[in-house]
Amino acid sequence: MATNKIVLPVQGMTCASCVTTVERALNGVPGVANATVNFATEKATVVYDPSVTRLSELASSVGEAGYQVIVERVTLPIRGMTCASCVSHVEGALKGLEGVLSANVNLATEKATVEYLPGVVGPGEFKRAVAGVGYEVLEPEVGEEEVDEEERKMSQARQRMMVAWGFTIPIIFWMLYEMFTGTAWPNRAVFDLGMIVLALPVLFWVGRHTYRSAWSSLTHGTANMDVLISMGTGVSLLTGPAALFAPVANYAGVAAMIMAFHLTGRYVEATAKGRASQAIKKLLELGAKTARILVDGEEREVPIEEVQVGDIMIVRPGEKIPTDGVVIEGESAVDESMATGESMPVNKRPGDEAIGATVNQEGLLKIEATKIGRDTFLSQVIKLVEECQGSKVPIQEFADRVTSRFVPTVIGIALLTLAIWLLFPNVLRPVGLWAQAFLPWVDPNLGALTLAMVATVSVLVIACPCALGLATPTALMVGSGLGAENGVLIRHGEAIQTLKDVHTIVLDKTGTITKGKPEVTDVVSANGSDEETLLHLAASVEVGSEHPLGQAIVRGAEERGLSLAKIKEFQAIRGKGVKARVNGTQILVGSRRLMAEAGIDPTPLEEELRRLEEEAKTAMLVARDSTLVGVVAVADTLKEDSIAAIRELEGMGIETAMLTGDNQRTAEAIAKVVGMSRVLAEVLPDGKVVEIQRLQEEVGTVAMVGDGINDAPALTQANVGIAIGTGTDITIEASDVTLVRGDLSGLVTAVKLSRATFTKIKQNLFWAFFYNTVMIPLAIVGLMHPVLAEIAMAISSVSVVSNSNLLRRVNIRPDYERAQL
Predict the structure, then answer these.
(1) What is the pTM of this model?
(2) What are the angstrom distances between the C-alpha of 665 and each of 533, 613, 614, 672, 706?
(3) Does 508 participate in catalysis according to the annotation?
(4) pLDDT of 779-812, one tens digit each?
(5) Cα–Cα distance between 296 and 731 in angstroms, integer?
(6) What one-character-per-residue DSSP string does 11-57 give?
(7) Does residue 132 have a pLDDT over 60?
(8) Which of 105, 240, 427, 579 is deepest in the core (most CB within 10 A)?
(9) What average pLDDT does the structure give for the chain?
(10) Which letter, b or e, does each residue of 182-195 get, where b requires 16 or more Cβ atoms within 10 Å of its Cβ?
């Protein structure tokens, strides 16, 4: 077999056993001839058959073994792409490089997002591969420079359009005179020569980029949209010189008109795409440019790039917080709407986190910088939006397959049209005779060669796959940007399509439905114990616990002024409770299961347990040695909008399920209050993945909402993983969708956004396919004029982009929030 050798950088190995594990995993992949791992260099050398094995499979096998192949992601600005065929060519070139795991090209942003193995392939190879198919990789630009580049493109497109029309408008008036008077002014020779002279600057000056792109595409063995335009205008232009020596209609002026409309379409398209990409621009503009920091006790204003972790920043009312940090002095209200979409300001006091680029409204704050540069919340949001815009939705795969073969097919159809009109002109001429009464541009009395040329050029011009290439990426651009503005961060386009079809959304109870800050509500003593002693014993043991319920008991004891004893032999029993020795006695705090395993009968307190659990409280039994001494009940309050959000989700036809470690009775009581359809209770932390799998088998598509850290395995198992949190520590990497606000309004927004965005994608694709399905046959039978064909093509592209921009008018906020307003 033909084999390749590749070196994979492997992360996470700590000993020789790790080497054996990684080698076994790699050698177990079909198509791998040999795999050896070097522990010292942390690299694996793999000999494999590329026709059997893909690099992504090698990387996955290492990941499944518990280690990680180091993968980097880069976004490359691409110059020279004009249509969906260009996207296919650039993607093919990048994916063909050894070491590239994935490559997604977005025509709307003119960027390629590449995941690759560092050390195997890099930016140099990307540039050469892209250049090899006729395009150019630009140096990545950020901030203001990127905005200026976008404006430069729009200005350039406008200038080309204006110059084109400067020469084309005289052509139109000259042709109108001939049309209405029936004579060429001042004579036929001057008219024909004038058409050629006026058309040349339009075609070969401002339109030269179209021909250059077409030539580059053809010389690399491919064909893009510009090939169709170049062929159409080229054939039309050749009729000009031909008309000087043969009885052929002069369409040189028409060639100029086609190019002028083409450049107009390019300008309008560039403007519309600029509006679609406003999200990134707005986010870039949000960041502060400078910061005032304390240096040796004195304030000093420095560029934001010079701020370091640990610097103390001074932020006055009305100023932006320069970067992420922690408030160390002062109190104020901060407008965090740019991050969360929440219009109400958030009060900040010492110890609270502050998000960079949010606005301080009232008091003076001193903030210690904790994150800078790429690590800041704003940078993560920008990166996430760019990643989403660089991804694809599954429905786009079919469109990609079509566009990759579209242009060659159209050229074939055009040549077939030419042959039919030249060889069998009387077969199609009756269609023109029928249509000339209501289509003024149809003239079946023209010569066979002229009619053949008109039909062929119309087919070439009208079949450009612009709309098809813009249908999905522009909707993704607007949707992801709109989501970011409303506190919903979407990592992959696939999540949009999956989320809109979700059957059940599973929500982890603590911190998602509830605030995650439980309080002690009841202390029920038994067997001669008093309430203070009971709470003292329970809190003393729970000091060693990190569980929110345990911390609530500790807080409850401290608020009552109880002193806590020192403990020994502390042990947390996962999903059941805790135990430790207090003053020489064994104390257990936890569930019925914990007591039963210790040989203690919980039955005497069963009635109290049932009462508390029916009140949606979590009741924990406390035992001293082998004797029950009582029950401590803790309740976690619901978030303000949990009931309204769940009601709205259920009203949208989505089943909601609560996942919790609480016992069935308590869980059902909470679910009843909130209005949830399904309860998954008494689930241990390591059983969450199994519950998600079971639910997927039962209902199909499942989304999971959790904190993004403790629930990471379940988030990964779900069809869509949704992380929810507040502040700068949200683990964005753990999920497909991240809700920046700490409440459930973002979940409703995410579902509405996914449905609205996917609706726009479907509308765009339908329009693009419908346009080509209807227009190409009309052009074949001679009912379409080349100029009208170009106008129709431009309208089609602009309509798709404009329809995507209409997404901004769709209300994606929860209905209950609008009702409150």
Answers:
(1) 0.71
(2) 28, 6, 6, 11, 22
(3) yes
(4) 898 888 887 877 887 788 788 888 888 888 888 8
(5) 35
(6) E---SHHHHHHHHHHHHTSTTEEEEEEETTTTEEEEEE-TTT--HHH
(7) yes
(8) 105
(9) 84
(10) eebeeeeeebbbbb
